[in-house]
Amino acid sequence: MLRAGIVGLPNVGKSTLFNALTRSRKADAANYPFCTIEPNVGMVAVPDPRLAPLAAMFRAERIVPTAIELVDIAGLVRGAAQGEGLGNRFLAHIREVDAIVEVVRCFEDRDVTHVEDELHPLSDIETIATELLLADMESLARQKERLERTAKSGDKAARAQVDLAARLLAHLEAGKPAITCPLAPEERAAARPFFLLTAKPTLFACNVAESDLARAEELAVVREVEHYAETHRGAEAVVISAQIEAELAELPAEEAREYLASLGVAESGADALIRAVYHLLGLRTFLTAGPNEARAWTIHAGDTAADAAGEIHSDFRRGFIRAETVHFDELARLGSWNAAKEAGALRQEGRDYVVQDGDVMLFKFNV
């Protein structure tokens, strides 16, 4: 399963957010640096508003959402690339995740210590960006030296990797993350064994105060983070209040909705964040339904109908005949599976069909 790591400076709300998202108390959340030392791991259900109406349509007994894995990683400080604070552990743990959720403190609170003694979100982001760049440059320089020794023996593959490493190293030395280096798809695939931290897709979570959530988009600090994310990383920024999410996690669903409404907020920031992380990981959802359950299944963007069938059972893939398919939006408009069939909206897709997010599928197979 793909994993997303929650990172940031100490005391930005990482552990509070992790506990709220995973509805657990695995991570200590206290007002001092390095409260989290060993990473905490938790499963998070991916909110999908399509499941409830799908379950009602098929009179399903239960709803089964898909899920992702989150990792709460120790806070980073300036000098981490040289081992300051918990730098070595931080960098080792972040290498093990597939995407990064960087929590950025966008709230003022004199009672919560800030590691740099003042609120400055862009400075916080640059601190982490710099440390990851330095770690990547050191790691890639060592790998390039090893590859050069291999290439001297006439190894053409090693020579190609040396050239790729040199391009990436020049990009990093210019202060740019590896993910923004212009590479062809095959070159990006060839660069994966370098395990570069700055090559990981990143999402920024702007952690705002409870009193600011309803007007968060008007805050200068939030706009700064959104602009940075778009212009420097081609990334998305999501607004969230970790403290509010922690309170919501303790409430029944109806009370949680009422609480959000009282704040002037339509949707939990956690729901938007989880969906954004899911797509950041390159994941997509197809749906199945029947009297037993309405279920969301995880696939990768670009996966075929045969791949999707295999997620349910290997026999489905092995004996694949076809997939009866209709997109959820069309199914919801028509009102039922039979109505979709009568309207000619139900498609018969072969094993090489590329599944789209939101496809509702019924697999025919023979083993």
Low-confidence stretches: 27-37, 83-87
Number of helices: 14
Major sheet size, sense and barrel closure: 6 strands, mixed
- Number of DSSP strands? 12
Shape category? flat
Strand order in the largest sheet = 2-4-1-5-6-7
Question: How confident overall, as mean pLDDT?
Answer: 88
Question: What portion of residues is helical?
Answer: 40-55%
Distance between the first and last residues' Cα? 27 Å
Q: What structural class do you assign from the helix and strand content? A: alpha/beta
The succession of helices and strands, N to C, reads EHEHEEHEHHHEHEHHHEEHHEHHEE
Round the Cα radius of gyration to an integer and report it. Answer: 23 Å
Q: Give the percentage of residues in beta strands.
A: 15-25%
Q: How are the secondary structure elements laid out?
A:
Elements: E1 3-7, H1 14-22, E2 40-45, H2 51-58, E3 62-64, E4 67-72, H3 87-95, E5 99-105, H4 121-151, H5 156-173, H6 185-191, E6 202-207, H7 220-233, E7 236-240, H8 242-248, H9 253-262, H10 269-280, E8 283-289, E9 293-300, H11 305-312, H12 314-318, E10 320-327, H13 328-334, H14 337-342, E11 347-349, E12 359-365
Helix pairs in contact: 1-8, 4-5
What does this structure look like?
This protein is α/β, with parallel strands linked by helices and 367 residues long. Helix content is 41%, strand content 19%. It is built from 14 helices and twelve strands. The protein has helices spanning 14-22, 51-58, 87-95, 121-151, 156-173, 185-191, 220-233, 242-248, 253-262, 269-280, 305-312, 314-318, 328-334, 337-342; strands at residues 3-7, 40-45, 62-64, 67-72, 99-105, 202-207, 236-240, 283-289, 293-300, 320-327, 347-349, 359-365. It has a six-stranded mixed β-sheet with strand order 2-4-1-5-6-7, with helices on both faces. Helix 1 (14-22) runs parallel beside helix 8. The radius of gyration is 23 Å and the shape is flat. The two termini are 27 Å apart. The model is unreliable at 27-37 and 83-87 (pLDDT under 50).
